[in-house]
Specification:
By secondary structure, this protein is α+β, with helices and mostly antiparallel strands. Helix content is 38%, strand content 22%. The chain folds into two domains: 101 residues, no CATH class; 81 residues, no CATH class. Helix 2 packs parallel to helix 5 and helix 5 packs antiparallel against helix 6.
């Protein structure tokens, strides 16, 4: 007579994430314990690497692979990591640096947007799809600026394809990455509103001219 297996995988752990708000020259984070941290990006040195983080659950302790982003100033340093619960188990024989226990855990999309921003030198000279990801973690003021940059980029694409005075459908297509991000992010929605308003103003001025 067969026996019913009583063993099952434990419920996956999900460590709390930090919330980030990006400004052109600073990063503000709300940690899971409610504490707010502000870190100046002006003159900081970003260092990206692979690493591991020790994950402790009620069942076991294990090492999980993460991606790490260290932001270093003269007298300050913070470390941000991707979610360890989404990383593979890291064998003890693998030699990668360990993330500090106080490292801020960010959702992967937020981590990628921030990492690309700081490693790229904090410039907005990127595609609309990248600007849309950035808008999702931006402060309200910075989201508006990103929206205006998206509008300018989108109009340039439309004008290059069909001329400066065509209808709005092409603009909507060019702004599609921002529109998609706006469905899930209030900041991206604010950037989209700024983009549409900015594009409308530019178009009116060109028609009058």
């Amino acid at each position: 007579m067969g026996r019913t297996a009583l063993y099952r995988d434990p419920v996956p752990f999900r460590p709390a994430r930090a919330e980030v708000q990006l400004e052109p020259d600073a990063l503000t984070m709300r940690m899971p314990d409610g504490q707010w941290l502000r870190f100046s990006l002006d003159g900081c040195t970003p260092v990206a690497s692979d690493g591991f983080m020790v994950a402790r659950t009620d069942v076991r302790t294990e090492r999980r692979f993460v991606r790490m982003l260290a932001l270093e100033q003269l007298h300050a340093r913070i470390v941000l990591v991707t979610p360890p619960d989404q990383g593979a188990v890291a064998p003890n024989v693998v030699r990668v640096p360990e993330a500090p226990p106080e490292a801020a855990i960010l959702d992967t999309a937020d981590f990628d947007a921030l990492c690309d921003w700081v490693l790229g030198g904090g410039r907005l000279a990127c595609a609309i799809v990248d600007l849309a990801r950035l808008a999702a973690i931006a402060s309200p003021q910075f989201a508006a600026v990103i929206g205006e940059v998206c509008a300018q980029r989108a109009l340039e694409l439309v004008w290059a394809a069909r001329g400066p005075l065509r209808g709005g459908s092409d603009l909507e297509s060019a702004l599609q990455p921002l529109s998609q991000a706006a469905r899930h992010s209030q900041r991206a929605a604010e950037a989209l509103m700024a983009a549409l308003a900015h594009a409308s103003g530019i178009t009116r001025r060109r028609r009058r001219g």
